[in-house]
């Protein structure tokens, strides 16, 4: 009976309908990054300060447009489906991998499932007009965790994990290891090179931003000032405050735009 239930659950994880929704989720994931990149460009060149260049700011940009609520619910459904697909991969996938490589893939899929689910929840919250900015939510969460026993250790470790994820993203971009996840054999050679370049630029830029987020979070915790623990928007503002910050932030923004386009292309060419 247990085996039968497990087989049915695995079949559900591999179902065609879930794949369709998950591919739609990749489009939604790409749109969120395109909007973050666009908002970051506006911040870099001083054309807008009304929205945060973080996921919640991107989602509020969607909400401000006609049919925005409907689009947000579509984004939420797609991202949740993407989370379910990654969860099924973590539980039942990678049977052809051995040892540490299989465990690494499962951990990565689990982390992605959590990220996609959180973004889906954020989209639903904004659709219901109950979402707060990612930076504000992070500060509230950080303050709460710091009150726990060993709370500072937990937050610093979390910051180090975020740094690790960022470094892994940069490495993935430099090595172009993301090419294992997509099948572009049907593309002309020039198009394949263009997709690879988008992936490289996108992963590296996003990785750099995550390293900065994790570093700022850990630093704020060690200096006992949780209100100085910014999210992605705060990290981008920190880049802007540096010498030549406008140009550095522009480069990061273009990287997010590249990652968004790459994610949308994955909806067509991702191996599932």
Automatic annotation (TrEMBL):
Coiled coil: none annotated. Keywords: Membrane, Transmembrane, Transmembrane helix. Residues 25-93, 110-175, 201-270 form the DUF1206 domain. The chain crosses the membrane at residues 26-45, 70-92, 113-130, 150-170, 203-224, 244-265. Pfam families: DUF1206. Signal peptide: none annotated. This is DUF1206 domain-containing protein. It comes from Nocardioides gansuensis.
């Amino acid at each position: 009976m247990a085996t039968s239930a497990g087989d049915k659950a695995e079949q559900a994880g591999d179902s065609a309908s879930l794949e369709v929704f998950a591919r739609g989720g990749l489009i939604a994931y790409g749109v969120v990054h395109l909007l973050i990149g666009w908002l970051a460009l506006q911040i870099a060149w001083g054309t807008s300060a009304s929205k945060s260049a973080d996921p919640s700011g991107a989602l509020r940009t969607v909400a401000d447009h006609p049919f925005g609520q409907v689009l947000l619910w579509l984004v939420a459904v797609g991202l949740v489906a993407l989370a379910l697909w990654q969860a099924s991969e973590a539980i039942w996938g990678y049977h052809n991998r051995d040892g540490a490589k299989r465990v690494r893939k499962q951990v990565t899929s689990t982390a992605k499932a959590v990220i996609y689910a959180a973004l889906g929840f954020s989209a639903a919250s904004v659709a219901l007009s109950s979402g707060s900015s990612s930076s504000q939510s992070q500060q509230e969460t950080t303050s709460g965790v710091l009150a726990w026993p060993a709370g500072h250790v937990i937050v610093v470790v979390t910051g180090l994990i975020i740094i690790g994820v960022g470094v892994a993203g940069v490495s993935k971009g430099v090595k172009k290891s993301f090419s294992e996840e997509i099948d572009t054999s049907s593309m002309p050679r020039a198009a394949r090179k263009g997709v690879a370049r988008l992936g490289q630029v996108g992963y590296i830029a996003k990785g750099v931003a995550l390293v900065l987020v994790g570093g700022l979070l850990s630093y704020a915790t060690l200096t006992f000032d949780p209100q100085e623990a910014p999210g992605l928007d705060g990290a981008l503002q920190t880049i802007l405050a540096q010498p030549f910050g406008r140009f550095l932030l522009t480069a990061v923004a273009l990287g997010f735009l590249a990652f968004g386009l790459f994610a949308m292309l994955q909806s067509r060419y991702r191996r599932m």
